[in-house]
Amino acid sequence: MGSHIEIILIALVAVFLVLRLRSVLGRRTGNERPPTQDPFAPPAPTPEARRDNGNVVQLPRPSSEPLPPPQRSAGQARLAPAAASGIEAIRNADRSFDAQGFAGGARAAFEMIVGAFAKGDLATLRPLLDDATYGSFEAAVKDRQAQGRVLETSLIGFDSAELVRAELRGTVAHVTMRFVTEQINVTRGADGLVVDGNPNTVDRVTDVWTFARDTRSNNPNWLLVGTDSES
Length: 231
Prior knowledge:
It is a single chain. By secondary structure, the protein is of the alpha+beta class. It has 6 helices and 6 strands, in the order H-H-E-H-H-H-H-E-E-E-E-E. The longest helix is centred in the N-terminal third of the chain and has 24 residues, at 2-25. The model is unreliable at 15-71 (pLDDT under 50).
């Protein structure tokens, strides 16, 4: 009987201690230390950051792929007011003629011709130039090759492209474009050393090119018939 009383007393004491500990542990005194924070964990967002802010833009994750080199675009070509009457005359002779479409094609031809000339690619140049202009380009390329020189041209971008003149001579349309570009032009000798230009200098170059096409021809291609430059 005595042993049963002792067991009951021990149980009552245990219950009393559990209740006492719960009352103490469950009470905050204001002196508790904040929980240890992972030093590598990002900070918790502030209340201001939690609110939806329309001015906040999520930045993209950095890509492992290198960015392409910057290249400026002149956008849509400008049509000079002085060329309006000539454009209209060509349009009357060839209803398919579109001045802005022509300007875009002329710009693409400019890039192709500049690149082909630097590489000495006469096969690419031949169908883009009339006979006289091709003869001049061919002579310059062959003279450069005879000297063992190499021309390196990097077209950085277009500052502007403007259709400055248009006229109809009989059935042949002539349209002149003025291109302002930034380029790096370097000529190297057979030993690889620079003989002209600077690989670290970007030049602002202004070219005035004239293209022509017979409006009665079934061939829609325009040919470069004249080149000039402005200092």
